[in-house]
Design goal:
The complex is a heterodimer.
Chain A lengths: L9 H16 L2 H27 L6 H17 L5 H23 L4 H21 L1 H4 L5 E2 L6 E3 L2 E3 L4 H23 L2 H11 L1 H5 L5 H27 L1 E2 L6 H14 L6 H17 L5 H15 L3 H13 L1
Helix pairs in contact in A: 1-7, 2-7, 2-10, 2-11, 2-12, 3-4, 3-5, 3-10, 4-5, 4-10, 7-10, 8-10, 11-12, 11-14, 12-13
Chain B lengths: L6 E10 L2 E11 L5 E4 L6 H9 L6 E6 L2 E2 L5 H7 L1 E3 L12 H12 L14 H13 L15 H13 L5 E5 L7 H18 L2 E5 L3 H7 L2 E6 L2 E6 L1 H6 L1 H8 L6
Parallel strand pairs in B: 3-8, 3-9, 6-7, 7-8
Antiparallel strand pairs in B: 1-2, 1-4, 4-5, 9-10
Classes of the chains: A mainly alpha, B alpha/beta.
Chain lengths: ~325, ~250
């Protein structure tokens, strides 16, 4: 049949290999930077399931990221050290919270949806910031003992930047594979249909609210996973994760990288952090220069940097 | 009243605030019958469509589809019961391919819209049915084109394919030939005729173009200022003085 689509997985496979051998040749500082890029990339890809694929601009993703982080920190502080337990618990808490927030938000569209998610995000921020007994207030919750993992009788710990990097890499790759499956599933096609025309979906039998809540919950769950990882990487859960300015990060990363391509937001996260590193060597006002870089990207790369380059390359092949 | 009617509407009314847009409309459409709802601008045609298709619940009256009451059901439930509609303004998934446009209703019909894994293109049940639908509207060879790149008339045909994919028993078409050139209009007329004949689908259309109405409809309903002014076979409607007055603003003395 003419319409059969084949997925080209060579590129992502090469990327995973490069990421796996990277730490062998990179200085420690860059290994840590790459860890952060991967974690924020996972957050941005989860966000983009809503933004690029469903057409919903959520400005409250920081809440679910923070919930994942706080869940991990509280479990670790209370003596739980099973890695799977912590990852799953962080995702579960984020999932439940995003189901609730989604339930109240998905009836709205565009700017109204963005504002209500921003409002929910700021509610979570206030709780994290002011409920000092549980969350440690503005100081956040420090994490001293990291979880360990027993695999085939070998006890793995993650106290060095390189071992932490591999924990992050494996988790982010697994998370991305699951997200990729969702994007390319029947549900994923319905999400794109919703983005294009939610009324038409409703008038071919789709329950728009339920479909959107499901998308919101999946996005929130993987954002929570990124939050757990960041807590482990950062040895800290902090209320700033829930601040609206933190929720803006996946938005910017997705727009830089490209919202129409699955890996676009991951590349956007890479560009974001590398730019920060380069600019910060010259000036402290890196946000000013981020703005200066963002403007031409929006103007000249309508599909994002990665999206536009990919389009050009595919056209040549 | 015809109890075997596939679509039956009883005393339907809808108001915006205190303004009654449509009032006391009753009609019964037989299975496989192609009928048309006509009336001057502002007569309430689109409001009537919206009220029976689940866009909003009607203020008064009842709607039955295949004998079951569907009054006030949301659109996705109405579709599940077997009635699907098109819109005055083309309503498609612009940045998806023609095939994906037709996959969407089929995924929902086969209850796979919450399936989080698997490739739709490898789902034989969906692909075969989608190709069958696209063949009906003459689009099988353009299945992988993006809809936004198509000509206007072709987009309308894609919307027809979306509407027909689930094989609804009743199809509501809101001005199916609006904005089309004469050739596209001719194609649409023969397509609707063919589908009505081959699949026994009941078409209920609104239309401004009287040529389209008289070449398609076996029965015509005339809506005027929110009321059903007349109903009957095309030749009866042509001869009806009330209808002439409504359209021309005065009685025509032959």
């Amino acid at each position: 049949m003419a319409v059969l689509k084949r997925h080209n997985l060579a590129g992502p496979a090469i990327l995973v290999v490069l990421l796996a051998v990277g730490p062998l040749v990179m200085p420690t500082y860059w290994v840590m930077l790459l860890s952060e890029i991967l974690i924020m990339g996972l957050m941005a890809m989860s966000f983009n399931l809503l933004f690029g694929f469903t057409g919903l601009l959520s400005f409250g993703q920081g809440a679910f990221f923070g919930l994942g982080a706080y869940t991990a920190a509280l479990l670790l502080q209370n003596g739980f050290s099973n890695l799977f337990l912590i990852l799953v618990a962080g995702m579960l808490v984020a999932c439940v919270a995003s189901l609730v927030v989604g339930f109240f938000s998905v009836r709205l569209d565009e700017i109204f949806f963005a504002m209500i998610t921003l409002g929910f995000g700021m509610m979570f921020f206030s709780i994290a910031h002011n409920w000092i007994d549980v969350t440690g207030g503005s100081d956040g919750l420090p994490v001293f003992a990291l979880p360990s993992l027993s695999l085939f009788g070998v006890e793995l710990t993650f106290y060095t930047p390189v071992t932490m990097y591999y924990l992050v890499l494996v988790t982010v790759v697994l998370g991305s594979v699951l997200l990729w499956l969702v994007v390319h599933s029947p549900f994923g096609l319905i999400l794109k249909s919703l983005r294009e025309n939610k009324q038409r979906v409703a008038f071919v039998g789709g329950n728009v609210s339920r479909l959107r809540i499901a998308a919101f919950a999946i996005s929130g769950t993987f954002t929570g996973l990124a939050g757990v990882l960041f807590c482990l990487f950062n040895n800290m859960a902090s209320p700033e994760f829930m601040h609206w300015s933190f929720s803006a990060k996946p938005v910017i990363m997705s727009i830089i990288g490209g919202t129409g391509v699955f890996l676009g937001p991951l590349f956007g996260a890479g560009i974001f952090f590398v730019l920060e590193q380069v600019i910060i060597q010259y000036t402290e006002n890196w946000m000013l220069f981020l703005g200066i870089v963002l403007i031409p990207i929006v103007l000249f790369f309508p599909d994002g940097v990665f999206g536009t380059l990919r389009k050009k390359l595919l056209r040549k092949v | 009243m015809n109890e075997d009617a596939v679509l039956r509407v009883e005393n339907l009314g809808h108001s915006y605030g205190r303004f009654k847009v449509i009032e006391d409309i009753s009609l019964a459409i037989g299975k496989g019958e192609t009928s048309a709802l006509i009336g001057p601008n502002g007569a309430g045609k689109t409001t009537f469509y919206n009220a029976i298709s689940g866009r909003f619940p009607p203020t008064r009256g009842k709607v039955y589809l295949n004998g079951e009451e569907i009054t006030g059901l949301p659109s996705h439930r109405v579709v599940a019961r077997g009635m699907c509609r098109s819109f005055q303004i083309t309503n498609v998934f612009a940045e998806l391919t023609v095939a994906e446009n037709v996959f969407t209703p089929l995924i929902i019909q086969q209850n796979k819209h919450f399936k989080l894994y698997g490739n739709v293109y490898r789902d034989k049940l969906i692909v075969d049915k989608a190709m069958h639908t696209l063949e009906q509207v003459g689009f099988a060879d353009r299945a992988d084109q993006t809809v936004s790149s198509l000509a206007y008339g072709d987009k309308r045909l894609v919307e027809m394919a979306i509407v027909l994919a689930r094989e609804p028993s009743v199809v509501l078409l809101d001005e199916p030939t609006a904005g089309m050139n004469p050739e596209e209009t001719e194609n649409m007329i023969s397509l609707i005729k063919k589908l009505a004949k081959v699949s026994g689908t009941t078409f209920f259309i609104t239309e401004h173009d009287m040529k389209v109405v008289f070449s398609l409809a076996e029965k015509i309903y005339v809506l005027h200022q929110g009321h059903l002014l007349a109903q009957g076979r095309p030749e009866e409607i042509r001869a009806n003085e009330d209808v002439q007055e409504a359209y021309l603003g005065r009685k025509v003395h032959a």
